[in-house]
Protein backbone atom coordinates (compact mmCIF):
# COMPACT_ATOMS: atom_id res chain seq x y z
CA UNK A 1 0.00 0.00 0.00
CA UNK A 2 1.06 3.59 -0.48
CA UNK A 3 2.37 5.63 2.40
CA UNK A 4 0.09 8.18 4.02
CA UNK A 5 1.75 11.14 2.30
CA UNK A 6 1.16 9.63 -1.16
CA UNK A 7 -2.07 9.03 -2.97
CA UNK A 8 -0.50 6.64 -5.47
CA UNK A 9 2.02 3.85 -5.75
CA UNK A 10 3.90 2.44 -8.70
CA UNK A 11 3.75 -1.31 -9.23
CA UNK A 12 6.54 -3.49 -10.59
CA UNK A 13 4.75 -3.60 -13.94
CA UNK A 14 4.93 0.18 -14.20
CA UNK A 15 1.26 0.81 -13.57
CA UNK A 16 0.26 3.71 -11.38
CA UNK A 17 -2.36 2.88 -8.75
CA UNK A 18 -4.34 5.91 -7.62
CA UNK A 19 -5.35 5.69 -3.95
CA UNK A 20 -7.06 9.06 -3.63
CA UNK A 21 -10.83 8.26 -3.66
CA UNK A 22 -11.39 11.26 -5.91
CA UNK A 23 -9.21 9.67 -8.59
CA UNK A 24 -9.79 5.91 -8.36
CA UNK A 25 -8.52 5.01 -11.84
CA UNK A 26 -5.46 3.03 -12.76
CA UNK A 27 -3.38 4.51 -15.57
CA UNK A 28 -0.30 3.25 -17.36
CA UNK A 29 3.24 4.46 -17.23
CA UNK A 30 4.54 7.33 -15.19
CA UNK A 31 3.11 10.52 -13.79
CA UNK A 32 2.27 12.75 -16.72
CA UNK A 33 3.00 16.47 -16.59
CA UNK A 34 2.42 17.83 -20.10
CA UNK A 35 3.67 21.38 -20.37
CA UNK A 36 1.73 23.90 -22.42
CA UNK A 37 3.47 24.58 -25.72
CA UNK A 38 5.04 21.12 -25.88
CA UNK A 39 2.04 19.38 -27.38
CA UNK A 40 0.13 19.59 -30.61
CA UNK A 41 -3.20 21.34 -31.04
CA UNK A 42 -4.81 17.92 -31.57
CA UNK A 43 -3.76 16.84 -28.08
CA UNK A 44 -5.13 20.07 -26.63
CA UNK A 45 -8.41 19.42 -28.43
CA UNK A 46 -8.50 15.88 -27.05
CA UNK A 47 -7.82 17.08 -23.51
CA UNK A 48 -10.54 19.72 -23.80
CA UNK A 49 -13.07 17.15 -25.04
CA UNK A 50 -12.21 14.59 -22.36
CA UNK A 51 -12.25 17.22 -19.61
CA UNK A 52 -15.68 18.42 -20.71
CA UNK A 53 -17.13 14.90 -20.65
CA UNK A 54 -15.22 13.17 -17.83
CA UNK A 55 -15.29 14.74 -14.38
CA UNK A 56 -12.82 14.15 -11.56
CA UNK A 57 -10.36 12.00 -13.54
CA UNK A 58 -7.48 14.30 -14.58
CA UNK A 59 -4.82 11.60 -14.28
CA UNK A 60 -6.72 9.17 -16.48
CA UNK A 61 -7.22 11.96 -19.01
CA UNK A 62 -3.49 12.74 -19.00
CA UNK A 63 -2.68 9.07 -19.59
CA UNK A 64 -4.90 8.99 -22.68
CA UNK A 65 -3.54 12.32 -23.92
CA UNK A 66 0.05 11.13 -23.52
CA UNK A 67 -0.73 7.97 -25.49
CA UNK A 68 -2.38 9.99 -28.25
CA UNK A 69 0.56 12.41 -28.34
CA UNK A 70 2.96 9.49 -28.89
CA UNK A 71 0.75 8.19 -31.69
CA UNK A 72 0.32 11.65 -33.20
CA UNK A 73 4.08 12.27 -33.24
CA UNK A 74 4.80 8.85 -34.70
CA UNK A 75 6.54 7.49 -31.60
CA UNK A 76 5.42 3.96 -32.42
CA UNK A 77 7.01 0.54 -32.21
CA UNK A 78 6.46 -2.36 -34.58
CA UNK A 79 6.49 -4.88 -31.74
CA UNK A 80 4.40 -3.09 -29.11
CA UNK A 81 0.83 -1.77 -28.98
CA UNK A 82 0.53 2.02 -29.03
CA UNK A 83 -0.36 1.87 -25.34
CA UNK A 84 -1.88 -0.46 -22.77
CA UNK A 85 -3.90 1.27 -20.06
CA UNK A 86 -5.82 -0.33 -17.20
CA UNK A 87 -8.52 1.77 -15.56
CA UNK A 88 -9.28 0.52 -12.06
CA UNK A 89 -12.21 1.94 -10.13
CA UNK A 90 -15.80 1.46 -9.00
CA UNK A 91 -18.70 1.50 -11.41
CA UNK A 92 -19.99 4.80 -12.80
CA UNK A 93 -16.64 6.57 -12.50
CA UNK A 94 -16.04 6.95 -16.24
CA UNK A 95 -13.74 4.00 -16.99
CA UNK A 96 -15.61 2.94 -20.12
CA UNK A 97 -16.87 6.42 -20.96
CA UNK A 98 -13.37 7.84 -21.33
CA UNK A 99 -12.61 5.18 -23.97
CA UNK A 100 -15.82 5.97 -25.83
CA UNK A 101 -15.08 9.70 -25.84
CA UNK A 102 -11.57 8.96 -27.12
CA UNK A 103 -13.08 6.85 -29.93
CA UNK A 104 -15.40 9.73 -30.78
CA UNK A 105 -12.41 12.06 -31.02
CA UNK A 106 -10.22 9.66 -33.00
CA UNK A 107 -12.79 8.18 -35.39
CA UNK A 108 -15.82 10.44 -35.13
CA UNK A 109 -17.97 7.75 -33.50
CA UNK A 110 -18.02 6.65 -29.87
CA UNK A 111 -18.86 3.11 -30.99
CA UNK A 112 -15.67 2.75 -33.05
CA UNK A 113 -14.31 0.35 -30.44
CA UNK A 114 -13.36 -3.31 -30.66
CA UNK A 115 -14.94 -4.32 -27.37
CA UNK A 116 -14.53 -7.62 -25.57
CA UNK A 117 -16.95 -8.22 -22.71
CA UNK A 118 -14.74 -10.37 -20.52
CA UNK A 119 -17.74 -11.79 -18.66
CA UNK A 120 -18.45 -13.73 -21.88
CA UNK A 121 -15.08 -15.50 -21.60
CA UNK A 122 -15.25 -17.20 -18.22
CA UNK A 123 -14.39 -20.63 -19.63
CA UNK A 124 -11.09 -21.63 -21.30
CA UNK A 125 -13.02 -22.96 -24.31
CA UNK A 126 -14.56 -19.53 -24.85
CA UNK A 127 -11.17 -17.85 -24.59
CA UNK A 128 -9.77 -20.26 -27.19
CA UNK A 129 -12.32 -18.97 -29.69
CA UNK A 130 -10.54 -15.61 -29.60
CA UNK A 131 -7.64 -17.37 -31.35
CA UNK A 132 -9.92 -19.58 -33.46
CA UNK A 133 -10.61 -23.29 -33.31
CA UNK A 134 -8.14 -25.55 -35.18
CA UNK A 135 -9.36 -27.28 -38.37
CA UNK A 136 -11.83 -30.14 -37.82
CA UNK A 137 -12.64 -28.87 -34.32
CA UNK A 138 -16.06 -27.63 -33.27
CA UNK A 139 -16.74 -24.06 -34.51
CA UNK A 140 -13.63 -24.15 -36.69
CA UNK A 141 -15.72 -22.52 -39.42
CA UNK A 142 -16.01 -19.31 -37.38
CA UNK A 143 -13.70 -16.33 -37.64
CA UNK A 144 -11.50 -15.96 -34.54
CA UNK A 145 -12.54 -13.21 -32.17
CA UNK A 146 -9.14 -11.54 -32.50
CA UNK A 147 -8.76 -11.67 -36.28
CA UNK A 148 -7.15 -8.71 -38.04
CA UNK A 149 -10.40 -7.99 -39.87
CA UNK A 150 -12.45 -7.75 -36.68
CA UNK A 151 -9.81 -5.67 -34.94
CA UNK A 152 -9.79 -3.07 -37.72
CA UNK A 153 -13.45 -3.25 -38.70
CA UNK A 154 -14.80 -1.01 -35.93
CA UNK A 155 -12.29 1.73 -36.71
CA UNK A 156 -12.97 1.67 -40.44
CA UNK A 157 -16.72 1.29 -40.55
CA UNK A 158 -17.33 4.01 -37.94
CA UNK A 159 -14.86 6.54 -39.33
CA UNK A 160 -16.88 9.34 -40.92
CA UNK A 161 -14.27 10.23 -43.53
CA UNK A 162 -13.87 6.57 -44.48
CA UNK A 163 -17.63 6.05 -44.78
CA UNK A 164 -18.00 9.20 -46.85
CA UNK A 165 -15.19 8.03 -49.13
CA UNK A 166 -16.84 4.62 -49.46
CA UNK A 167 -20.11 6.30 -50.44
CA UNK A 168 -18.30 8.35 -53.09
CA UNK A 169 -16.76 5.17 -54.50
CA UNK A 170 -20.26 3.67 -54.68
CA UNK A 171 -21.56 6.75 -56.49
CA UNK A 172 -18.60 6.70 -58.88
CA UNK A 173 -19.23 3.05 -59.75
CA UNK A 174 -22.91 3.75 -60.35
CA UNK A 175 -22.01 6.56 -62.75
CA UNK A 176 -19.51 4.29 -64.50
CA UNK A 177 -22.24 1.67 -65.01
CA UNK A 178 -24.60 4.36 -66.30
CA UNK A 179 -21.92 5.59 -68.70
CA UNK A 180 -21.46 2.07 -70.09
CA UNK A 181 -25.21 1.79 -70.61
CA UNK A 182 -25.28 5.13 -72.43
CA UNK A 183 -22.38 4.05 -74.63
CA UNK A 184 -24.24 0.89 -75.59
CA UNK A 185 -27.23 3.02 -76.57
CA UNK A 186 -24.87 5.28 -78.51
CA UNK A 187 -23.42 2.34 -80.42
CA UNK A 188 -26.93 1.08 -81.16
CA UNK A 189 -27.98 4.45 -82.59
CA UNK A 190 -24.88 4.60 -84.77
CA UNK A 191 -25.72 1.18 -86.17
CA UNK A 192 -29.26 2.33 -86.92
CA UNK A 193 -27.94 5.39 -88.74
CA UNK A 194 -26.17 3.06 -91.17
CA UNK A 195 -29.48 1.66 -92.37
CA UNK A 196 -30.48 2.69 -95.88
CA UNK A 197 -34.23 2.35 -95.33
CA UNK A 198 -34.47 5.17 -92.78
CA UNK A 199 -36.90 7.98 -93.47
CA UNK A 200 -35.60 11.51 -93.15
CA UNK A 201 -37.77 11.98 -90.07
CA UNK A 202 -36.35 8.85 -88.38
CA UNK A 203 -32.84 9.90 -89.31
CA UNK A 204 -33.33 13.35 -87.80
CA UNK A 205 -34.70 11.86 -84.57
CA UNK A 206 -31.77 9.45 -84.28
CA UNK A 207 -29.34 12.33 -84.75
CA UNK A 208 -31.10 14.24 -81.96
CA UNK A 209 -30.94 11.16 -79.72
CA UNK A 210 -27.26 10.77 -80.55
CA UNK A 211 -26.48 14.34 -79.50
CA UNK A 212 -28.49 13.97 -76.28
CA UNK A 213 -26.60 10.79 -75.40
CA UNK A 214 -23.26 12.48 -76.04
CA UNK A 215 -24.30 15.39 -73.82
CA UNK A 216 -25.46 12.95 -71.15
CA UNK A 217 -22.13 11.10 -71.24
CA UNK A 218 -20.28 14.41 -70.95
CA UNK A 219 -22.34 15.28 -67.85
CA UNK A 220 -21.59 11.88 -66.35
CA UNK A 221 -17.87 12.39 -66.95
CA UNK A 222 -18.05 15.78 -65.25
CA UNK A 223 -19.88 14.29 -62.25
CA UNK A 224 -17.29 11.51 -62.04
CA UNK A 225 -14.48 14.06 -61.99
CA UNK A 226 -16.23 16.01 -59.22
CA UNK A 227 -16.60 12.83 -57.19
CA UNK A 228 -12.92 12.02 -57.70
CA UNK A 229 -11.95 15.47 -56.46
CA UNK A 230 -14.11 15.11 -53.34
CA UNK A 231 -12.67 11.63 -52.80
CA UNK A 232 -9.11 13.00 -52.97
CA UNK A 233 -10.01 15.65 -50.37
CA UNK A 234 -11.45 13.00 -48.05
CA UNK A 235 -8.34 10.86 -48.47
CA UNK A 236 -6.30 13.77 -47.12
CA UNK A 237 -8.46 13.75 -43.97
CA UNK A 238 -7.98 10.04 -43.38
CA UNK A 239 -4.97 8.68 -41.51
CA UNK A 240 -2.43 6.53 -43.32
CA UNK A 241 -3.78 3.68 -41.22
CA UNK A 242 -6.77 3.31 -38.94
CA UNK A 243 -5.55 2.83 -35.38
CA UNK A 244 -7.79 0.43 -33.53
CA UNK A 245 -9.18 0.93 -30.04
CA UNK A 246 -9.58 -2.33 -28.14
CA UNK A 247 -11.48 -2.38 -24.86
CA UNK A 248 -11.42 -5.37 -22.54
CA UNK A 249 -14.26 -4.60 -20.16
CA UNK A 250 -14.21 -6.06 -16.63
CA UNK A 251 -11.01 -7.97 -17.23
CA UNK A 252 -11.27 -9.76 -13.89
CA UNK A 253 -14.38 -11.62 -15.10
CA UNK A 254 -12.49 -13.60 -17.77
CA UNK A 255 -10.78 -16.94 -17.35
CA UNK A 256 -7.11 -16.59 -16.48
CA UNK A 257 -6.15 -18.12 -19.85
CA UNK A 258 -7.08 -14.75 -21.37
CA UNK A 259 -4.15 -13.24 -19.47
CA UNK A 260 -1.77 -15.49 -21.41
CA UNK A 261 -3.13 -14.12 -24.68
CA UNK A 262 -2.85 -10.55 -23.42
CA UNK A 263 0.74 -11.04 -22.29
CA UNK A 264 1.70 -12.15 -25.79
CA UNK A 265 -0.16 -9.21 -27.34
CA UNK A 266 1.44 -6.70 -24.96
CA UNK A 267 4.92 -8.20 -25.35
CA UNK A 268 5.02 -8.75 -29.12
CA UNK A 269 1.97 -6.89 -30.48
CA UNK A 270 1.07 -10.01 -32.44
CA UNK A 271 -1.07 -13.09 -32.04
CA UNK A 272 -1.32 -16.19 -34.22
CA UNK A 273 -4.93 -17.09 -34.93
CA UNK A 274 -6.65 -19.81 -36.95
CA UNK A 275 -9.08 -18.65 -39.65
CA UNK A 276 -11.43 -20.89 -41.68
CA UNK A 277 -10.33 -19.45 -45.05
CA UNK A 278 -6.66 -18.55 -44.63
CA UNK A 279 -5.62 -21.04 -41.98
CA UNK A 280 -3.06 -19.74 -39.48
CA UNK A 281 -2.54 -15.99 -39.75
CA UNK A 282 -1.06 -13.29 -37.55
CA UNK A 283 -3.06 -10.43 -36.05
CA UNK A 284 -0.93 -7.32 -35.50
CA UNK A 285 -1.64 -4.99 -32.58
CA UNK A 286 1.15 -2.45 -33.18
CA UNK A 287 -1.45 0.13 -34.29
CA UNK A 288 -3.82 -0.48 -31.39
CA UNK A 289 -4.75 1.46 -28.27
CA UNK A 290 -5.54 -1.21 -25.66
CA UNK A 291 -7.72 -0.29 -22.69
CA UNK A 292 -8.81 -2.55 -19.84
CA UNK A 293 -11.26 -1.88 -17.02
CA UNK A 294 -11.67 -3.59 -13.67
CA UNK A 295 -13.41 -3.19 -10.32
CA UNK A 296 -10.82 -5.30 -8.48
CA UNK A 297 -9.36 -3.88 -5.26
CA UNK A 298 -12.00 -1.23 -4.64
CA UNK A 299 -12.12 -1.88 -0.90
CA UNK A 300 -8.36 -1.45 -0.60
CA UNK A 301 -8.39 1.70 -2.72
What is the approximate shape? elongated
| Contiguous uncertain segments of 5+ residues | 1-37
Number of strands: 9
| Residue-averaged pLDDT | 79
Widest sheet, order of strands: 4-9-6-5
Report the end-to-end length measured between terminal Cα atoms: 9 Å
Task: Could you tell me the CATH topology label of the largest domain.
Answer: Rossmann fold
Order of helices and strands: EEEHHEHEHHHHEHEEE
- Note the main sheet: 4 strands, parallel
Instruction: Provide the CATH architecture of the largest domain.
Output: 3-Layer(aba) Sandwich
Write down the domain tally: 2
The first-level CATH class name of the largest domain: Alpha Beta
Structure notes:
- This protein has 301 residues and is α/β, with parallel strands linked by helices.
- It folds into 2 domains: 8-155 and 241-294, Rossmann fold (3-Layer(aba) Sandwich), CATH 3.40.50.300; 160-237.
- The protein is 48% helix and 14% strand.
- The strands form 3 sheets. The chain has a 4-stranded parallel β-sheet. It has a 3-stranded antiparallel β-sheet with strand order 1-2-3, with helices on one face. A two-stranded antiparallel sheet has the order 7-8.
- The protein is elongated.
- 27% of the residues are buried.
- Residues 1-37 have low confidence and may be disordered.
Compose a concise summary of this entry.
Residues 80-146, 230-300 form the ATPase AAA-type core domain. This protein has helices spanning 41-53, 58-72, 95-107, 124-131, 148-157, 160-193, 200-237, 257-268; strands at residues 8-10, 16-18, 26-27, 83-88, 114-117, 244-249, 270-275, 279-284, 288-294.
Amino acid sequence: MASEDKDYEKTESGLLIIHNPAFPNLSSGEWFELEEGEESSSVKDLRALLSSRIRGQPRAIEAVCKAFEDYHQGNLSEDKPIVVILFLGPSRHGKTEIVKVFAEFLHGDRNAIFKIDCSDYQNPSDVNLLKGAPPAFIRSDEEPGLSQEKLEEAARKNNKAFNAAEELVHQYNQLEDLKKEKKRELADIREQLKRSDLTSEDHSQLVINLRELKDSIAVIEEEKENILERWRELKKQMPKFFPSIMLLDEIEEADRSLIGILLQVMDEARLTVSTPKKGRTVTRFHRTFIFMTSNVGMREI
